Amino acid sequence: MSTPIKHYLQFTDLSAEECAYVFERASLIKRKFKAYEKHHSLSDRTLAMIFEKASTRTRVSFEAGMYQLGGSVVHLTTGDSQLGRAEPIEDSAKVISRMVDLVMIRTYEQTKIERFAAHSRVPVINGLTNEFHPCQILADIFTFIEHRGSIAGKTVAWVGDGNNMANTWLQAAAMLGFHLRVSTPSGYEVNEKTAAAPSDMGQGSYKTYSNPLQACEGADLVTTDVWTSMGFEAENEARRAAFADWCVDSRLMAVAKPDALFMHCLPAHRGEEVSAEVIDGPQSVVWDEAENRMHVQKALMEYLLLGRQA
Ligand code: CP
Ligand code: NVA
Fold first, then answer.
1. Over 80: is that where the pLDDT of 2 sits?
2. Residues 198, 91 within the same domain
């Protein structure tokens, strides 16, 4: 009997133990990268990257990462493939997955990536959907661990939109046992059903706040994201007005722990969801966060294809 294909469509697709392994492996892979040591665990393997939305970090981190693992990539967009011309997603999945070893998709609805995965012969990775951004949260937690050690028992404050990032933080809090506090303007709350919020938060917890200052009190990490995610541009003006008080500035950072970190998945809009003094200040680890996308995704791709390495 063949082993079932392991996809990474949401954060909960890896167990806490598997996450710990991926972090450990990402550390090793990062160390070797910094030392210019070859790590060709995926030589002759091919990754297809399908983008239905724009990207800088996801594209560069997956593409550079795959080459560094000794493999190669195929880059597809809606505009330059049959994906944008109504070929059924199931047919695209069957065809693409006969020619490559791994597929990364950035798209709109989570159901699209799920349909693709259901018809794929190879592992599929979520490179962002309207609902989730699991590779980003893997990188964020890896970054937290690098700076502060285990995230279990720590407090993370999410300030802003109840979006794909917030949903994924919620899944991570339950799985890895940390406390998530979320403050959003009214009407932009995390939809717990969409977030697939676990009914059992384990050692973790989840609490909502109407006041962002209260959410940040005593936090170990303060994090935010754009007010308007890709695909929601028509709501831009309404969101600007609604989110005006949800800017992570020095006032909010002042009530968090003195050594609290600041994270943002980027791209950022200084003066909107974060002030320049915070994102460019000493508590911000946003550049480590961006770089770590590549290291954790290399570890993730290796794990999905090869399993645990000795
Ligand atoms: N954080 C992130 O996913 O960035 P990109 O949209 O540039 O890929
Ligand atoms: N929430 C943002 C993240 C961008 C990386 C979006 O979906 O556009």
1. no
2. no
